[in-house]
Design goal:
single chain; alpha/beta; 9-stranded mixed sheet; two-stranded antiparallel ribbon; 45% helix; NAD binding; NAD; cytoplasm; 6-PGluconate_DH-like_C_sf
């Protein structure tokens, strides 16, 4: 791949300000020692994918550790060539001029003039170009610190110690298959932290899901003990603006405790957890049900009652599905519940559901929306429905006392599939599903799930070790 490195200023910024937290260098030194780093050998961290959360994650690391240039290198890769349209360039110019710290920074770096020219229509800006100055195309209103941007994938990853997967789940497999070509000669395997939320379904040899960490494992043959998932109640722009937040890093015990410590900041608390499956699957499921939440909000004029009814039913379906996948899944509480709540409240998938219900977006526009990125819930609806509709997974219906596909016990998932995928129903179908007088008490579905009668270990398939 042809590409280049665009080098940002070495000055450490925290949304325009220098950061100096006690203990930061000690945390970095401790992690370097774990990897056997010696003086002069940088810890190399690279983000792959520059959506909102991927860019913010890289910026958080840059703010914390970028000042220690002899000890760590933090870069982010994104594809070159994505142009910024005129309307976005005009809005970006307004954002720049509304923030004195950002304006001064660009003037000091001799980078302001290109934004003036783009505002006037005399120049085309590119996404990788503005990211170097701290502007993520999917999150223009929240300026980040300047970032070191790499547009050549091989150059970005070939010697990376830590790789942050900030790609949508729908792109994870393809990109990591390419990355695997550059790691064939590696002696030591990198650590990979996946931020992706979503799944794919495969039906042979038996129906099973493939999560982003499994995609990475299969594509690269990096062992699962080196691949972790990080998720939590995180709205990217709010985290970068220092809203207090928390997250969990999940996976094998080899790295997760040390990584939680490295990633933890005063406003961003990271805990560690061993239940990779439940957290990663819930990360995909919440995007599914967030689309429906947005539809309900738009169709009922933000009715608190309707939204609470929807919340009760969708969380019961989520609990039911995770009990199919794990014998003792993490309870839908704490960060897992909070992640679901915030995604239903304000995530891009909920926004998408609202826009579809209001008629301001069309399904024909696809699931990649300008200024928002990929709406991952759409593909996840198809994957979960396809998987859970297989007769080989039949479970006993508690009332009909006959075998049915698991999806028959998930009426909201069925309805979203008919709205988004087959388009058999309009968006008002989601309200009809909630108002079905035959709809069971959500508690009944949870009790069925917790009886262990529905656990299907084959749904997780197998991963390469």
């Amino acid at each position: 791949m042809v590409g280049s490195i665009e080098v940002a200023s070495s000055e450490p910024y925290l949304n325009g300000a220098i950061q100096n937290h006690n203990g930061t260098e000690e945390k970095l030194d401790e992690f370097r020692r774990l990897l056997g780093k010696v003086d002069g050998d940088q810890l190399k961290i690279v983000g792959v994918g520059a959506g909102a959360w991927g860019s913010v994650f890289a910026a958080l690391l840059q703010d914390s550790y970028g000042q220690f240039r002899d000890k760590v290198q933090i870069r982010i890769w994104r594809r070159p060539g994505r142009s910024v349209d005129r309307a976005t360039a005009e809005h970006l110019f307004e954002v720049i001029n509304s923030r004195e710290d950002v304006l001064r920074r660009l003037i000091r770096r001799c980078a302001y003039l290109k934004y003036v020219e783009a505002r006037l229509g005399d120049r085309t800006l590119y996404a990788d170009e503005i990211l170097k100055d701290g502007f993520c195309l999917n999150m223009i209103d929240t300026p980040l610190c300047p970032l070191k941007v790499v547009t050549n994938l091989q150059e970005a990853v070939w010697d990376a110690d830590i790789v942050i997967n900030g790609l949508p789940s729908t792109e994870t497999r393809e990109v990591f298959e390419e990355i695997s070509k550059y790691w064939k000669e590696r002696i030591t395997m990198p650590i990979i932290i996946s931020l992706a939320k979503g799944i794919e379904a495969e039906l042979v040899p038996v129906p099973h899901i493939i999560t982003p960490t499994q995609m990475i494992n299969r594509a690269t043959r990096v062992p699962m003990e080196n691949i972790l998932y990080l998720g939590g109640p995180n709205i990217a722009s709010e985290i970068y603006d220092k809203e207090y937040a928390n997250a969990r890093i999940c996976g094998a015990g080899k790295w997760r405790i040390q990584l939680a410590k490295l990633l933890r900041q005063p406003h961003f608390i990271v805990w560690d957890n061993s239940d990779l499956v439940t957290h990663e699957v819930m990360g995909g499921l919440k995007n599914v049900y967030a689309i429906g939440a947005g539809m309900v909000a738009a169709l009922t004029n933000e009715s608190a009652t309707s939204k609470s009814v929807y919340f009760a039913h969708c969380t019961s379906e989520m609990i039911f599905i995770t009990h199919l996948l794990a014998e003792e899944p993490e309870k839908l509480a704490g960060p897992l519940l909070a992640d679901t709540y915030v995604t239903l409240l304000k995530g891009r998938n909920a926004w998408y559901g609202q826009m579809i219900a209001k008629g301001e977006l069309s399904l024909d526009m696809g699931d990649s929306i300008s200024g928002k990125g990929t709406i991952q819930g759409v593909s996840a609806v198809g994957a979960f429905y396809e998987l859970l509709s297989q007769s080989s997974l039949n479970v006993l219906h508690p009332e009909a006392n006959k075998p049915v596909a698991p999806v028959e016990l998930c009426p909201i998932l069925k309805t979203l599939y008919k709205i988004l995928i087959t388009r058999e129903q309009g968006t008002r179908g989601i309200l009809q599903a909630l108002r079905d007088e035959n709809l069971n008490d959500p508690r009944d579905r949870i009790e069925i799930a917790q009886s262990h009668a529905f656990y299907r270990p084959s749904l997780l398939g197998g991963s390469l070790e």
